[in-house]
Amino acid sequence: MTRAIFLGLLLATAAGGLAARRWRPGTGDTLEDWGLAGRPFGTALSWCVISGAVYTTYTFIAVPAVLYTSGALGFFAVPYTIIVYPIFLLVMPRLWTIARRHGYLTTADFVRDRYDSPGLAVAVASTGILATMPYITLQLIGIQVVLEAMGLAPAGSGTTGVAPLAVGLAVLAAVVFATGLRGPAMLSVVKAVMIFGTTAVALVWITVEVGGVGAVFAAAARALPARTPQAGTMLLTPESYSAYATLALGSALALFLYPHTVTAVLSARSVRVVRKNAYLLPAWTLLLGLLALFGFLAIAAGVETPKGRGALAIPLLIRSVLPDWLAGLFFAAVVIGAVVSSGIMAVAASNVFARNVFKEYIKPDATARQQAQTARAASVVVTMGSLLFVIGLKTQAAINLQLLGGVWILQTLPAVGISLFTRWFHRSALLAGWAAGMVAGTAMTAATGFVAVYRISIGPLQFASYPALLALALNLVVAAALTPLLTRAGLPRGLDATDDADYTPRAPARAGFGPST
Amino acid sequence: MSRLRGAAGNGAQRRWYLLLALPFLGLLWPPLYARAEPRLFGVPFFYWYQFAWIALSVLITWLVVRATDDLPEGADQP
Questions:
Q1: Distance from chain centroid for Cα A392
Q2: Is B16 in CB contact (< 8 Å) with chain A?
Q3: Helix A241-255 vs helix A77-102: angle between axes, to the nearest 10 degrees?
Q4: Min Cα–Cα distance to chain B from A81, Å
């Protein structure tokens, strides 16, 4: 029964995704049309599309899994996805406006124009692609976990377990190739309805089943201290305060530098849509917070996962407590969510490749059509390539790489985020800061054994921090120190192709409000 | 023509954006809320405090968007 509902819904999804090809027909075979769906989305659709990029399936599986195994520390996802919206409101309307005016599809497009520097642009572009790839792999691992809990795929990685996943991925590749952003966008609406519906019902159902809210927290408080190898806690311990805060802040600052979030935001129809979403999107944070508590529900329901497989906690909980039909709906929602997220990510990475690698370095005179075709081809390589990652890498390696991805993408903050507001930095100083941040961030993350928290001591002061933020601090210090030196040495600062007035909307009577190219 | 400045306005308008600092102050100092009591419907303070901030930050962000909404007529559409 669970499987029948699940598979039926997925088939309908695949058909719907492919049908999206004819949705809001665009202006022709251009990257703008394939990779941003022609920037058509109003408030409601943008809400679905942006959430599809931000609140990924892996998040919905992994966050409750951390609460299940470690307790309070995993809840950092909530402050993270709260403070991300003030940042969103400051940054995204400016990025949307400048991108619309100059026809940018990626942050690297912007950096190139702002600093007259293909070198800095390719650093930003390659960081984006590098950070996105393991993120896609994690979505597939999310699907894999669901399939495993349903008994549709054997446990563990390796080639035997990936056959169902490979079929799903081939469908995803076809949808993305044929429809670009349209398919994932249409499915993001389905995902939104299904995930809100099933989560609400499941939350109430399971809470009642295990004896109420008080019983849930009491059970978690009993079980967490007995966790091995490291005891979990219901509340943060003083040693983890700084880790909690820096993880939330670092993740929030990094989120809107990812290519897929940028793609999702740039596909909005107007700057007003972007601004409205700054206060509408937190509905998803509420959902994420409630789903996080499923980690405690799993404890209260007596779910036991195999050692080191905390990610199975939620799927096993759903399977053991909920009736078949509801479990089928929930699993389908989670898998459709993964298709949406990985679809947007694949489109975004392909946009970056077509614009900032192919057109910049391989074929500078590429037509709009050739760019679109390149992006389509790249999307197939990206989706199928991530399958190789799933086969070749252990799950833990993909998680490590994704953690590194977050550390890396944050190093583009000075060149992208800060540069939306000021052009004070010298372009070569930004490049040097980026390089320093990348090396230091990678080294620190590797030195911690990939646990996302680096312990640092400055004199008598000792604290633990998300290494991404420490690397960013170094990045900023290098960029700020080199800027006056390089400027004084007479290194050219390059021409700024953007104008201060380009970053804020103006009345259409005064000037055209379309891409300048 | 200050009404045409839009999202990052100036002067009195820009001051509204300072409100956006509140969620950071409320959430990035965990000693403020890493406690079990007072509970709400059996939920420890640590958890419901952060849930409450979702609503608070929506309210703040909505207020800032409304107060700074000086986008020129027609700028909404391409």
A1: 22
A2: no
A3: 20
A4: 9
